[in-house]
What does this fold into?
Amino acid sequence: MEKRTLNIWGVSIASLVVLMIVTPRIPQPQAYHDFADQRNFFGIPNTLDVVSNVPFLIAGIIGLVVCYRGNYFRLSLQGELLAWTIFYISMAAVGLGSGYYHLQPNDPRLVWDRVPMSVALASVLAIFIIERVDEKKGTMSIIPLIMAGLGSILYWRIFRDVRLYILFQLLSCLAIAAMAILLPPMYTHSIYWLWAGVFFLIGKIGELADQQIYDLTRQVIGGHTLKHLGLAMVSVFTSIMLAKRSVALKRQSVLDSLRISKSAVKTE
It folds into this structure.
């Protein structure tokens, strides 16, 4: 392993240790389980929050099947097939785990929601590393990233502290966004990552504004239901991207594109 990589890991771990020492423990708020839409249809508790997980299952299964159907997605890089396989399996598992959780929301059941979602996030981070940083490093990062996500959940359940879980989610999202903007994509049609990000953001807004959205829609649909539908669309857009993309003849980051556009405007 390169000395620079070791230094980065050393600084990161030291920073994490210091952060955990100087910040207070954050328990899982029990109010989190009190969702706005608790209606019961056809004998299913919290019906819409449960059935809105079906798109996860459908999109995940379709993506997984297409991954192995004559290599329709043309996955050729080292680790690509593994990372995308883990992603689609995880998204399908979210449909099952989250549905199970919403039947009777509580901390033990929340584990089955967060485990597949964390694994899916870890796989996307690894995919970005494979495609935009280095194939070998990205492939080698798949298992460590997944273990980090699972470790954050294990830490929460053992110590009743969600700090590591929050950090993993936040830092993973920031790293993906940074790579999407600063590093040139290896493939075309990367615009679909942007659409996936938009719907991911919509899902997060729905999660935070659950009650407000429920009231705003006159109790038609809650924000948490919209969260499920928004996050499930991530699988849809990534599948469309994989089906359409090809190796980019000219690699250019979003930041470089903006600079070129800005320069072109100035010269006019």
User: Anything to note?
Assistant: The two ends are 49 Å apart (CA to CA). Residues 128 and 178 are 10 Å apart (CA to CA).
